[in-house]
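Morning!

This is the sequence you dropped in the shared folder:
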Amino acid sequence: MEISALQSSPSSPSTGALSQLTGNLDSFLTLLTTQLRNQDPLDPLDTEKFTSQLVQFASVEQTIQTNKHLETLIGLQAAADRDGALAMIGKTIVADSDKAAIRGGGASWTYTLPDGATSASLVIVDDKGRPVASFAGDPRAGAHHFNWNGELADGARAPDGVYQLLVQAKDGTGAKAPFEIQSHSRVTGVGFSASGPALETDAGAIALSDVSRVIAGEEK
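The structure's back. Tokens below.
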């Protein structure tokens, strides 16, 4: 009996695979015992083949056990991610996003410029893509915190909603300089799906992997 024949069924989760392997091994040992009892004394069976197949069974069993341990570790990591996400409720997070929400106050972003940038301007647009305010940015290299108090270009207060920060940065040759933007949002809840937990904010859902910083309270 070749071990390949015993593994021809489709792969399944570790528990099912281990159960199937155990059944196949029992059948193999039963067949081996029967063959040994009824072998021709003048032409005995080749024990090397049986030994080789037993080693293969042991190797497959070890692989299945390793997969079971990995599944356990993945489950523990998922539980840790859920607990970590729930602990962020009520806190302010900094995440990779250029959108932030105003709810009776202002909005905050952090933009980062590289060495060589010589100018930077900031434009805030509403959810329809219309510019509502503009500011001169800090062209120095590094991260710059920008807090918008919600005042529009005409002096009126911006209505509650989600706003986007656009950064226009240039280097000494007038070419566009690269930049990064992160938004500051307050976590109001946590959503769970097959892809993992997502933090619910006024600016929308933010993946846990996109969070770079957590602030205990409102950042000044």
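Headline: Residues 4 and 53 are 10 Å apart (CA to CA).

More detail when I'm at my desk.
O.
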